[in-house]
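Hi there,

I know you've been waiting on this one. I reran it after we fixed the sequence typo, so this is the corrected version. Both the input and the resulting structure follow.
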Amino acid sequence: MQAVSVPQRRSQWMTEVIGAIGFIQRNYYLTKRYFLWEIVWLVYTTGNAMSIGFIGVAIDSQTDTNRLTTYLLIGALVWSYLSMIFDILSETVAWERWEGTIEYTFMSPVSRTTHLLGTSVYAVLYGIVRTAIIFVIFNIFFDLSISNANFAGALLVLAVCSISLIGFGMMTAVMPLISPEKGQQVTMIVGSILLLISGVYYPIDVLPGWMQQLARLSPVTYALRGIRAALLDGTPTSDLWGNIWPLLIIGAVTVPAGLMIFSAGERFAKRTGRLKRNG
């Protein structure tokens, strides 16, 4: 009996090992199939790690703890609002797939402009409510250095930047249409790149020169610079124009471009049968 049972146990053990190797091989081929997307995902992870490093560099150059705390919290607050707008727009397609309504939405007698702009208005309204709640919580737990703040100027900069982020969100929202398997990850990666180069938690001066050039293409850079000037230093609204006009130009370019890119992606998805696919 023992002589028979030992080989049987070994046989079962080998079967499990072979099965495990099979799953390893399957996942290897999946990674190989989407290798370019894996590289993009690596960029996302690296960007997040680098952001933490640049925070350390920025902190080393600051001496006023209260001002530094306020500086960081303003960055967190503004990024929370702007990333919410970006995320809601960029996840439009993913949400429709999760709910099983994507085909109905894309077949409805409504223009894609109306669809995306309606989503944008909701994103702005929801972001305002969410940001107001976070701001109240910040005031409860921290002594913010905003005694001379120009709130009207800060809100104006934030409103103009919202338009620019809407354009970016529309452009990235097309990725889940083009690639149902990995497209949603790209939206997260774009967000992490904006977080890295825009000076959310540190001045862009601590970045390498080539990254500072990229920062000038990000609307978040100008929004943070203007809002911090208004809240920390009480800069008059008229003096914030240097941060407002780049946002107007970026918005004028990205919103029409976002609509065109999304429409082109929609036609491609319908033609190739990717609209309803999940993976």
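Quick highlight: DSSP finds twelve helices and no strands in the chain.

Best,
R. S.
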